[in-house]
Design brief:
Blueprint lengths: L8 E8 L8 E4 L2 H4 L7 E7 L7 H15 L9 E3 L9 E4 L4 E11 H5 L25 E9 L3 E7 L6 H15 L24 E7 L9 E7 L19 H16 L3 E8 L1 H11 L4 H16 L7 E9 L17 E9 H6 L2 H15 L2 H16 L14 E6 L18 E4 L7 E6 L7 E8 H10 L6
Helix pairs in contact: 2-4, 6-7, 7-9, 7-11
């Protein structure tokens, strides 16, 4: 079995720049981008199974050559994040062709030891991607290719969330693979972030929690971004407003963040929902989509595993892609962040004592009611108003206090189509997760409509989750 304390040995570090120099300029960052500026970098692992006789030096050179080709179109990745300059001190991307870090490494572990348990997360997975950037590191993308003993390798990709969302990232990954196979890029990126630029500098927006009027879920709250001239009121179980920095809200947020940092016994596990299990969950929950059915099951089970006190507020956050929801629609290849976070809140008692039908209906209502252009525009204005207040963290960290379930990625992303010429990956997963109770969904390895879900919890809570997550509620 693989040793979880095993370290990867770096053999070479190089910088890959675009094959053709691109025009140097500063790229505007929209409010949707800047809302991700304080997020942790995202690390993805793609495992490829090859024969022992594979010529890995040739593999490395081919990957670097194709990376330089794809960076001609995806040139912002080769730039640097400028958090101090720009328009009135506004963060921006310095598109300067400085390049992308490319790390070549080996690890003395047989590939069979990694796949023996269906690629369950192991401690040494953090060795397969460059996640430990220094505070002053302004790079936006790094690649690490690690070969295993006897054959097989992993492509670890680490990128700053400020530059792109999941849709754009996987478009980049697919384009890189096309270049590796000698094909032209089929879906070239559209660089048009100024469509979200705002000229009105006087608006003041905050977050407000509105009680749901639908009978089935009328005790829940959905958060909306609204214009207001005064500081909003903190949301709690006894009112329906959300604050953006009340003393109690900040205190609770600090306590939760501190507990995450101090928790050293965290475990990441991946759960595989078969097409049959998802269909059963949809029928049991009344969900209209596979995502809603799995998300409802996860939200209830992860809160139960954490033993959340009944009177505490629990939240569910869903990122919604707005490329096709604005008028006129943006192209699917819009490059950048084009997601808006939609939030629902309810007490743990209300969530867990009610049927899974309740959780599914709330998530469905959350997506339906927030997936409008008005909601997106108000979110943009909310972030812009935070920036005008010189808030260096223009997010919802100081708004929400409680236990949060966060959905990331999507089971619709083409993660298993990234073929560089040596076959498709046999497993794709996150290198790490942002916090306790957060989760990421990917398409299932077995194909069809299956879904893989990864989450992170303290070990004793994970043991509870393993016993209940894959069981259809009575």
């Amino acid at each position: 079995m693989a040793d979880n304390k095993m370290k990867a040995k770096v053999s070479r570090v190089s910088t890959v720049a675009p094959a053709i120099p691109t025009a140097k300029h500063s790229m505007f960052l929209s409010a949707l981008d800047i809302s991700k500026i304080t997020c942790n970098n995202l690390g993805m692992l793609l495992f490829y199974k090859t024969t022992a006789g594979k010529d890995f030096p040739t593999v490395m050179e081919k990957l670097k050559t194709s990376l330089s080709l794809v960076l001609v179109d995806f040139y912002p990745f080769a730039g640097r994040l400028d958090t101090k300059g720009g328009e009135c001190g506004r963060p921006e991307i310095d598109c300067n062709d400085e390049g992308v870090e490319f790390v070549e490494a080996t690890i003395d572990i047989p590939f069979e030891d990694v796949e023996i348990d269906n690629f369950q997360h192991k401690n040494f997975f953090k060795e397969l991607v460059q996640t430990g950037h220094a505070k002053d590191d302004d790079s936006l993308l790094s690649i690490q290719v690690t070969t295993f003993h006897g054959g097989g390798f992993c492509i670890g990709v680490n990128f700053h969330h400020v530059i792109t969302d999941g849709n754009s990232f996987w478009c980049f990954m697919n384009s890189w693979a096309e270049c590796s196979r000698g094909l032209p890029i089929s879906k070239k990126p559209h660089h048009m972030r100024r469509v979200f630029q705002r000229d009105n500098k006087s608006l003041n927006f905050h977050v407000r929690a509105e009680e749901v009027v639908t009978d089935l879920i009328k005790e829940a709250h959905i958060f909306r971004y609204a214009q207001h001239n005064s500081l909003p009121i903190e949301y709690s179980e006894n009112n329906s407003s959300a604050g953006d920095g009340s003393v109690e809200s900040r205190k609770n947020t600090r306590i939760i963040q501190k507990s995450i940092k101090e928790e050293t016994n965290l475990e990441i596990s991946t759960f595989h929902f078969s097409e049959k299990l998802i269909q059963d969950l949809k029928e049991r929950s009344g969900a209209s989509t596979s995502f809603v059915a799995v998300a409802a099951q996860f939200w209830r089970c992860v809160m139960k595993a954490q033993q959340v006190p009944e009177n505490k507020t629990v939240y569910f956050l869903v990122p919604v892609d707005f490329r096709g929801r604005v008028k006129p629609p943006l192209p699917p290849t819009y490059f950048g962040n084009c997601i808006c976070v939609c939030i629902a809140g309810i007490t743990a008692k209300q969530l867990l004592q009610k049927d899974i039908v309740f959780a599914a209906a709330l998530i469905q209502e959350l997506i339906s009611s927030c997936a409008s252009e008005v909601h997106l525009n108000n979110f943009v204005d909310f972030v812009e108003s935070q920036l005008r207040r010189r808030n260096k963290d223009p997010t919802l960290r100081n708004v929400l206090s409680g236990y949060i379930g966060i959905s990331g990625m999507s089971p619709k992303f083409p993660v298993y189509e990234i073929d560089h010429g040596w076959g498709r990956p046999v497993s794709v997963q996150a290198a790490s997760l942002g916090g306790i109770g957060s989760m990421m969904m990917f398409p299932g390895r077995e194909g069809g409509k299956s879904i893989s879900l990864s989450t992170q919890l303290p070990r004793h809570q994970m043991e509870t989750l393993k016993q209940i997550l894959m069981v259809i509620p009575d």
